[in-house]
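Quick one - first record:
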Amino acid sequence: MNTLLEIKNVTKYYGSGDAVSKALCGVSFTMEPGEFTAVMGASGSGKSTLLNVIATIDRPSSGSILLEGQDVAELPEQALAAFRRDRLGFIFQEYNLLDTLTVAENIVLPLNLQKRPVRETQEKLRAVAASLELTEQLSKFPRQLSGGQRQRAACARALITQPALILADEPTGALDSANSKGLMQTFVRMNRDLGSTILMVTHDAMMGSYASRILFLKDGQIWNELYRGDRSRQDMYHEILNTMAVLGGEADVR
């Protein structure tokens, strides 16, 4: 199986002179197609910085980030914008849905930006809405949906271009416990049934337990990693709590 994402010795500095701080320090790992990986660690460990450089929102100070064999850190700005639009899917904590558009219009927005044919757009909309149980919500506006439905709509928008990699930044942060679990079950369905490759940043041990692999960051470096293997999700949850206790960071235990 070909490696989808390869992070090679990525370092990220902020500031200059005596005020330099190192957010990432020689981070290296790979992801295969169809993986569901979570990144955890204490506040300030480098989780968000790592996601931002992979998302091409920020550029690494050194090292390389290869997605499908292409070093995204070397792309010029115009090519980078197209790459971000076409090959990456984003799911944020605050949904980032446009209030003036219907759910359907929000979901197909990336395809409209690609100027895809109307027939293709509608076919993909019907398929992704059915897979995420949103068909009855398509004509509604985001304000008419529950938090869980809004986040499922955000998932559908991320999925509709069939991106190589979906990046999720604390996706359950604005949801209550029940909706958080519902969203993670959606992630599992996206990963298992639709073949989506997902990299998720979370501080929540319960949400992390849905992933098949956990990377733990400390001081900008990968400190440890866990693989689910044959363990149950409950066993994975307790293993995450134990690891976080040794790591010394906080983990939400809701």
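second record:
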Amino acid sequence: MSNEAQKDGLNNSIAKAVTILNCFTYEKYSLRLKEISMLTGINQATAYRMLSTLKEFNLIEQHNGEYSLGRGFLKYQGIVLNSIEIRRVVLPYLEELSNNLKITANLAILDDYEVVFVARAETPYSAYGYFHIGMRRPIYCTAVGKVLTCKTPEIAQEAFKRGAKRYTLNTITDEGRFLEELETVRLQGYAMDLEEWTNGVNCLAVPLHNMSGDIVAGISISGPITTYPTEKMKEFVPLMLEYAHRISSRMGAFGGF
């Protein structure tokens, strides 16, 4: 790692610190020193020193012998979100869409092989489930994941190489079937997630394009199947495509998608 760090101009200590921070996930938000050492390959003495330094800046907290990410990160959340230009452009449209349809509207982008939700407009008519900005979900079980990769199936193929987990009975875990779904999405211009991520929830998504015609984000609407069954969701397709065109035009895209 040291030679590679020097070759690439990386600071070895910072690289190790980031590696430690990346150990923490929603599933494993609290770890012991031994676990951190095993996950990172960094010996315990070095990991301990790094964790102690990160604690000084409130980026790591320690309770009962376990480490977790510190509250110092919270002050960066708003700064990061505000720096995402597409979020500033799209948020007013999301709020308008949510108010018009009385349904929750979301904005998501692709980060590596996952979908990251960066904005949400909620309505009391369709409040459900647990959600937070920055939440990540797999490509293969979300409507926005489908629209974000419908023109780049190689990204989906790589995601499947990393494993596909079944979240519901409807989750698509077969790579071939998912690639066929992506081709359908590419041709029709929208995607649906019919209880593929969460039981009892349907989603509809459309892609957003930049001036080069590349898909840079996706917007979706989601709600409980009791209120928004499949046929009801399909009724919203024309309006969703209209919003996608308006937003994409705002970002410099012109003509058909």
